[in-house]
Amino acid sequence: MDFTLTPDQQAFRERVRSWLKTNIPRDWKALGSSEVPRPEAYEFLRKWQRTLYDNGFIGLTWPKEYGGGGLTFLEEMILHEEMALAKAPPVLNVLGVGMAGPTIIAYGTEEQKQRFPAKILSCEEIWCQGYSEPNSGSDLASLQTRAVKDGEHWVINGQKVWTSLAHVADWMMLLARTDPTVPRHKGITYFLLDMKLPGVTVKPLKQITGDAEFNEVFFDNVRVHESHVLGGVNNGWGVGLTTLMYERLALGFGLQARLRISLDQLIGLAQRMEKNGRVITQDPVMRQKLAQVWIDTECLKYTGARAITKLLKGEIPGPEASTGKMGWVETHQKLQELAMEIEGPYSQLARGSDRAVDGGVWQYSFLRSRANSIEGGTTEVQKNIIGERVLGLPKG
Ligand SMILES: Cc1cc2nc3c(=O)[nH]c(=O)nc-3n(C[C@H](O)[C@H](O)[C@H](O)COP(=O)(O)OP(=O)(O)OC[C@H]3O[C@@H](n4cnc5c(N)ncnc54)[C@H](O)[C@@H]3O)c2cc1C
């Protein structure tokens, strides 16, 4: 990949940089600057995403006619880098922007493409992803939520679980079984489900962090109009996998840029904390560990750049996206563990304690990071995908 920027791309970088300098609201710091959208920051982040949209700094690669910027993934990479350098707040409608929007643009009817993408970018409509069920996680094709045709509607019954943001979501990417008589991958349909329809019940689940970021969602005779099928009846497996590829790409590529923010904050922490009477940054072992996280972060940057090269050639993300996701998970978890090591005994003081370092933000992000190797497909499953589809190994 050629990293030399054209004059236009260089000008774009400068425009983003100077805009960010004056437009990140001051109260972001007071809200804790968490890399994971926290409930108390939802309203702030909703407005922030709207500001990004109004200024054309979100959905850069989406076609202009659907609310995007009509630019390339190179501008998208520049934007992510500049956001990381400026420590900008994250995007709230992350599942909509990272998954629902690109999938609707790839498979939607013209009516769906006119209706949904722009509202995703502006954060007017938040999206969640209804894939996992109590007995279907890694083995997603075994999902049991049923959809039965009744006139112009599909009637949905069943349950989803671990549905992030369902408690604030307006729409869901829903996978449901529409034909139980055919091989299981072939009888699934992808629906765009309005979360306000009668019969949808959302029950929050509390996580180890104390936040209820994800939910159980129950469907009791929910009637979805047939115009909200995406990509054709019984074609949901292919459509759903596209969403997952975008998810892994977003997790691997988008989040690797944000790793830089956490790494800079970690170095700041190491410069303030002491161990055995000297600051941590003078401790030779800790210096080695910090340097290793920087090296891993740089490697991820270039893995992301390889994925971008593929996208620039007009190809959609393939199984290689799994590499980026896995690499990000390992580096991020290592970074969070290192933060606990740097804090030493202070790591025992959770959020809410007067003496917790940085208000306990590191304890929160350490606990949250345990989920990284599960969400978006477990690390074991990513390794299976790489083994089978990249290396050509036989199925396990
Ligand atoms: C924070 C968080 C947010 C989430 N958000 C969402 C969301 O918004 N929407 C959604 O639909 N889902 C969501 N999930 C669910 C997530 O996608 C599933 O948890 C994940 O796919 C694993 O499924 P499972 O929990 O049923 O575990 P299982 O599939 O039961 O796996 C249990 C263990 O067995 C291992 N395993 C399973 N199969 C294999 C295999 N073939 N080879 C080797 N090892 C295997 C797994 O790696 C794991 O360690 C979220 C999960 C978390 C933690």
Question: What does this molecule look like?
Answer:
Helix content is 46%, strand content 14%. The strands form 3 sheets. A 4-stranded mixed sheet has the order 1-4-5-8. It has a 4-stranded antiparallel sheet with strand order 2-3-7-6, with no helix packed on it. The longest helix is centred in the middle third of the chain and has 37 residues, at 236-272. The chain has 396 residues and is of the alpha+beta class. A hairpin with a 2-residue loop joins strand 9 and strand 10. The chain is built from 12 helices and 10 strands. Helix 4 (73-85) runs parallel beside helix 8 (236-272) and helix 10 (321-343) packs antiparallel against helix 12. The model has no long low-confidence stretch (mean pLDDT 91). Flavin-adenine dinucleotide binds next to strand 1 and helix 12.
Q: What's the quick description here?
A:
The protein is built from 12 helices and 10 strands.
> In this structure, how is the largest beta sheet organized?
4 strands, mixed
Number of strands: 10
Looking at the structure, what is the overall shape? globular
Strand residues, percent: 5-15%
Query: What series of H and E elements makes up the topology?
Result: HHHHHHHEEEEEEEEHEEHHHH
Low-confidence stretches: none
Bound molecules: flavin-adenine dinucleotide
Mean pLDDT: 91
Q: How many H/I helical runs?
A: 12
Kindly report how far apart the N and C termini lie: 34 Å
What structural category do the secondary elements indicate? alpha+beta
Assembly type: single chain
Strand order of the largest sheet: 1-4-5-8
Considering DSSP H and I runs of 4 or more, what fraction of the residues is helical?
40-55%
- Return Rg in Å: 22 Å
